Amino acid sequence: GMDSYSFGKKITITLSFDPSQLQPGEIPAIYYYDQNKQEWVYLGGTVKGNTITVEVDHFTKFAVFVQTKAQPGTLTDISGHWAENNIRELVALGAIGGYPDGTFKPDKNITRAEFVTILVKAFALEAKTGHVFADTSLHWAKDSISTAASYEIVNGYNENTFGPDDTITREQMAVMIMKAAQLTPATAELTFVDSQNISSWAQQAMATVVQNGIISGYPDNSVRPQGKATRAEAVTVIVRAL
After folding, report:
1. How far apart are CA 225 and CA 23, in angstroms?
2. Distance between CA 138 and CA 120 in Å, rounded?
3. Strand residue runs (E) in the chain
4. pLDDT in tens, 139-174
5. Are 148 and 118 in contact (CB under 8 A)?
6. Distance (Å, rounded) from C-alpha 159 to C-alpha 163?
7. pTM for the whole thing?
8. Beta bridge partners of 63
9. How far apart are CA 65 and CA 86, in angstroms?
10. CA distances from 151 to 18, 39, 71, 130, 146 (A)
11. Which of 22, 163, 196, 228 has the smallest set of CB atoms within 10 Å of its CB?
């Protein structure tokens, strides 16, 4: 459509900003919005006074954001979020990061591969290779998945399939957390309104993580075992398990 079209030759765009808004060590940079990935992509630019200039070959949404040289961990979208402190804690540990544009996207769903990667980093598991599924051999997270599988923290759906890009469910998360933290299995019955929806293979893990205060129910006393976990929820269960 009209919001993104290419030019025959490069053109120069200049955007202005307010230098008084900058903290020491901060430098402004131009980003463009990638419609396909739905994220801001760093372009850079030349700063002169209160303007910043960059050459581009296509037109889309542009914006000036601050690049902080001193602290790359300044996240722009978690202030006031219920999981803000947990997110900061796990970012400080180096177990998870934000996106290149400085956002964290706390309410975005998290995949099995992403969750496993954070888990392996948070628990500082020694890398173990050789445990590769047919659908992880070329995947960016194959080493983390192999490590977690070697420690028997994760299973595939079967011996060939791990489903790295599937969104992780709350009950899958419970199983992985229980194993990573080596929690003593609990035997208590869960009394959530939807306890009957917990898969048989996840019942013990769900009971264990709930008893340990790692996963909690929602205000309506549901636990939503098949619910898709968000980045904020994933971070929170890992911080609590640590």
Report:
1. 44
2. 19
3. 5-16, 26-34, 39-44, 46-48, 51-59, 62-68
4. 999 999 999 999 999 989 998 999 999 999 999 999
5. no
6. 11
7. 0.69
8. 31
9. 25
10. 52, 34, 34, 12, 9
11. 196
Please name the residue that has the structure tokens 């997110």.
Answer: 87
Distance CA 95, CA 24 (A): 27
Q: Are strands 39-44 and 5-16 parallel, antiparallel or unpaired?
A: unpaired
pLDDT of residue 63: 73
In whole angstroms, what is the distance from residue 135 CA to residue 137 CA?
6
Task: Map tokens 């070959």 to a residue.
Answer: 57
Q: Which residue has the tokens 């602290």?
A: 71
Provide the phi-psi class of 119: left if phi over 0, else alpha when psi is between -120 and 50, else beta: alpha
- The residue among 98, 44, 48 whose CA lies nearest residue 66 is 44
SS3 239: helix
| Residues 43-67, mean pLDDT to the nearest whole number | 76
Whether 98 and 75 have beta carbons less than 8 Å apart is answered as yes
Token representation of residue 200: 């048989």
Q: Which two structure tokens, joined as six digits, stand for 206?
A: 């769900």
Record the tokens describing residue 38, joined without a space. Answer: 């739905």
> Tokens 């759906």 correspond to what residue?
157
Q: Residue type at 47?
A: V
Per-residue tokens: 107: 């309410």
- If you ran DSSP here, which 8-state letter would residue 160 be given? S
